[in-house]
């Protein structure tokens, strides 16, 4: 009996010493949560600058501007002696303010007619219409050396000149009497990009606190 009492006393003393050691370690290392040590984040001073979520050493790739495409304006003619409409003149004025015109390329004038009349007469009529547009461009300050005139006659209609029963298609013929003004662009010309304005940066590019 005395031996068992001594053994129990020894075990109790050992347990107490072990528990005391654990308490001392916890007081030294701080409380544990879920079996892991709790780490408190240090507060960030208010006057410390905020950090960006983007790395300074990584630059966004610049997108290459799109290729500049030629611009075509159609000038209709009601008949052989008709003047250009105000609507057509407005489109031409807008074309003179375009990037295509400013690129300095050739301006091609293709004159067209309907199928009425002889082929030779239609060819001359298409030439006169293209020349009339060319004269207007020159009067508007365009260098004559940039202008090329091509008389197409009745070769390339955009609408049928006759109805299915063979009678004249007046609306179609009126559409075919035209001059197509094409502002060509130099090879490799690209769309002009405006300089970015201050404050135009996307919201994601602004500094954010971590």
UniProtKB/TrEMBL annotation:
Protein name listed in UniProt = OmpA family protein
Feature: compositional bias, Basic and acidic residues: 170-195
Q: Where is the OmpA-like domain?
A: 64-187
User: Mind telling me which GO cellular component terms the entry cites?
Assistant: cell outer membrane
Region annotated Disordered, chain positions: 25-55, 155-210
Q: Which CDD domains match?
A: OmpA_C-like
Instruction: Answer whether the UniProt record assigns the keyword Ribosomal protein to this protein.
Output: no
Sorted alphabetically, the keyword list is:
Cell outer membrane, Membrane
Q: Which organism is it from?
A: Parapontixanthobacter aurantiacus
List the lineage, top down. Bacteria, Pseudomonadati, Pseudomonadota, Alphaproteobacteria, Sphingomonadales
Where is this chain primarily localised?
membrane
Q: Where in the cell is it found?
A: Cell outer membrane
Keyword check for Membrane, yes or no.
yes
Any Pfam family matching the protein = OmpA
